[in-house]
Amino acid sequence: MSELSVQGFDEGALADLLHEYFGVTADSLRPSATFDDLGLDSLGLMELAVALEDRSGVEMADQLADLTPASTLSEAARVIERAVTEGAGG
Fold this sequence. Notes:
Blueprint: H1 11-22, H2 42-56, H3 61-64, H4 73-87
Helix pairs in contact: 1-4
Pfam families: PP-binding
Protein name: Acyl carrier protein
Domain Carrier: 8-84
C-alpha cells in the first residue's frame, strides 16, 4: 500500500497499514480490536499518524489526536477517512 485512497478508507485499509508498518498479525486485525490489543501505545499512534500523513500527503495530526490506545480499528478508520477526505478538500 503506497498511497492512501481518499475514497473508501476502511478497517481493511487500516489493517493492511498496521500489518505492513507495525507487523501486526492478520488474525489480530478485527474491527473491534483496540490499538492496545495490538500492542500500540500512544507513541505507536504517533508513528501511525506520521505513516498516514506520509502516505496520504495530508496533515492529519489534529484529527487523529482524539485516538487513544483504547480506540478500536473501526473508530480509527472513520476518523482517518474523515481526515483524508477533509484534507483533500472533499
